[in-house]
Design a protein that fits this description.
Elements lengths: L8 H24 L6 H4 L3 H10 L7 H12 L7 H22 L8 H21 L1
Keywords: Signal
Protein name: Neurofibromin truncated
Organism: Hirondellea gigas
C-alpha cells in the first residue's frame, strides 16, 4: 500500500496492478475452498482492490490526478484488516518524519550532508519495512 504514494508514477501503477494478482489469488482459493462461500470472506475489501487494479490501466493526466483517484478508492475500504492498518501506520510515520525534516530544513544548523543522511535513513527504514511486508 505504501508504494501507492510514491513520486514515481511507474511504481504507483505497478503497485496498483498487484491488487489484480491479490484478487486473482482470492478467486482461485474460493473456487477450491468449499468452506468459504464468498471471496469477500477471504478478502474483505475485494471490490476496492479490483477497482484499484482496473484504475492502473486507465490513462491519467498526471500524478496529482492519479493520487486523487487512489485516495478516492482507498476511502471506499470498509473493513480494516491488519495489513491495511500496518500500511496506514507506516505511511503516517513516514509522513510525520519527512514533514518534520522538511519543516526544519531551512532552520536547521546541520550541514547538507547530515540532512541528506537523515533523509536517507528515513527512506531506508521505509524500504526495510516494505521488505518485511
Amino acid at each position: 500500500l505504501m508504494y501507492l504514494w510514491s513520486i514515481d508514477m511507474e511504481a504507483v501503477l505497478v503497485a496498483m496492478s498487484c491488487f489484480a494478482l491479490l484478487c486473482e489469488e482470492a478467486d482461485i482459493r474460493c473456487v477450491w475452498d468449499e468452506v468459504t462461500a464468498t471471496v469477500t470472506y477471504l478478502l474483505p475489501n475485494y471490490h476496492v482492490y479490483q477497482e484499484l487494479a482496473a484504475a492502473s490501466t486507465v490513462p491519467t493526466t498526471g500524478r496529482a490526478a492519479l493520487q486523487k483517484r487512489i485516495t478516492a478508492l482507498l476511502r471506499k475500504i470498509e473493513k480494516c484488516t491488519p495489513g491495511c492498518l500496518q500500511a496506514w501506520e507506516d505511511t503516517f510515520i513516514n509522513w510525520e518524519n519527512l514533514t518534520k525534516l522538511l519543516a526544519s530544513y531551512p532552520k536547521a544548523k546541520l550541514e547538507d550532508g547530515q540532512i541528506a543522511d537523515s533523509f536517507h535513513r528515513t527512506v531506508g527504514k521505509r524500504r526495510a519495512s516494505h521488505q518485511s511486508s
